[in-house]
Amino acid sequence: MRMRWMVAAASALALALLTSDVPLPLWFDWPASAAGGAACPANSKPANLNFTLKDMNGKDVRLSDYKGKVILLDFWATWCGPCKVEIPWFVEFQQKYGARGLQVIGVSVDDTVEKLKPYVSQFKMNYPVLQGLNHDDVQDAYGPMWAIPVTAVISRDGKICGKHMGLGSKPSFENEIKSLL
Predict the structure, then answer these.
(1) Cα–Cα distance measured from residue 38 to residue 162, given in angstroms and rounded to the nearest whole number
(2) In the predicted model, what is the mean pLDDT of the chain?
(3) Which of 20, 47, 77, 159 could form an SS bridge with 154, CB 3.0 to 4.6 Å?
(4) pLDDT for the residue numbered 98
(5) DSSP state of 110
(6) In terms of pTM, does the model score above 0.90?
């Protein structure tokens, strides 16, 4: 009986860590999130923007076309609870900071276009939503992705300045965006 409780407690802790906005550098060799309004760290790694994905209308979209903008690249799915919390923030950020050079891009990791269209309409997503199904190469470039959402904040010069796994915080995202605009 005691072993069951220990397993349950360890599982709950693991779930809490995966769904909280814990900075990934504690676990991975990724640049730290731009905390406290700081700009992109000097040792930030370049983002791989050499991918072409289809949007919901079947049109090719090259990530490299957005170089020169601050990119919030969000990997998500329609079934993901934390994604449903973050998407309205990203809609707001696109509206608020788009004219200043922000581009939010959503990559649905495992949904078909038939599932995406009503979801995008329901959430009034005002930014490109790309089909990531069967594009493990893109996920690998920004991974590892042990859980979603995974969101990368990329500077105008194409560096990964922050990366969030699990539910982030709205102020953290906004501070990172503002520091790069």
Answers:
(1) 11
(2) 82
(3) 47
(4) 97
(5) S
(6) no
